[in-house]
User: What shape does this take?
Amino acid sequence: MNLKQLADYPGYGSELILHEEVGEERAAREDLLEKMLLRLQEMRSSIARGLSSDEPSRTGMVGWNAKTLWGADDKLRAPLMKRVQAYAMAVNEENARMGRIVAAPTAGSAGTVPGALIGVGDHLELTDEALVMPLVLAAGIGQVISQRMFIAGSSGGCQAEIGSSAAMAAAAVCELLGGEAKAAVEAATLALMNTIGLVCDPVGGYVEVPCVSRNAFFAVHAVSAAQLALAGLESVIPPDEVVSATASIGRLLPPELRETGEGGIAATPTGRRIALKMAK
Ligand code: SF4
Assistant: This one.
């Protein structure tokens, strides 16, 4: 399946994804939904642990950001934004502490989907059951994208990793808010298109800086993409062409900007100093 085929489906995109999964896995629909609910609950557990912990990661670079933000005064009076950001960072700080998370699609980008989807769900006081089908769609979008481009930062830069997770999250939030397949694919496309060029430059090669805060930023980005798509905005460039463009940029990125810790902010004097200290 490609994104155009998904967008052309007359109904919720998750229905088509689930239908295909049932066929491929030869599993009962109820079993797949149960499995997805368990994943959602794992995501929720990692959020809860992350929000309540300030234990530093192995490197000491992160570990308290989610808890700090969660407890901070909301100067903007924008509880949704703060919730989405804090949830996303909570998951990635758990990842940095070697805690249990659900890769979505990777560990480095694991906070974006739960941050956006569970963040919006909680903001609207929805049940976990209401989030299951949007999560099915997120998984399906990730799968479709991964058939046409790398989704790891080491292969395609952060645009591949966070770009995919933002696209997944945008589609999920769009469906959660009532968007059918066409709108959800537009949301995913807008999210992916607007991450193109994002490089992978983790300090010291650890999935912590900029990764933790990056998930917070791109969870909000995903919610924005969903909002735009629900309002009827569409990408001028067709969805599958956006995926191909992202893949081609990934191939053009030099190794220094693909998770080697040798370029971007990792190559700043402070980044190099931290890497050296960790190596000792
Ligand atoms: S900077 Fe690299 S390691 Fe960090 S989230 Fe992005 S792709 Fe993953």
Summary: The chain has a mean pLDDT of 96. The pocket of iron/sulfur cluster is lined by residues 108-109, 153, 158, 161-162, 200-202, 207, 210-211, 214, 259 (CB under 6 Å).
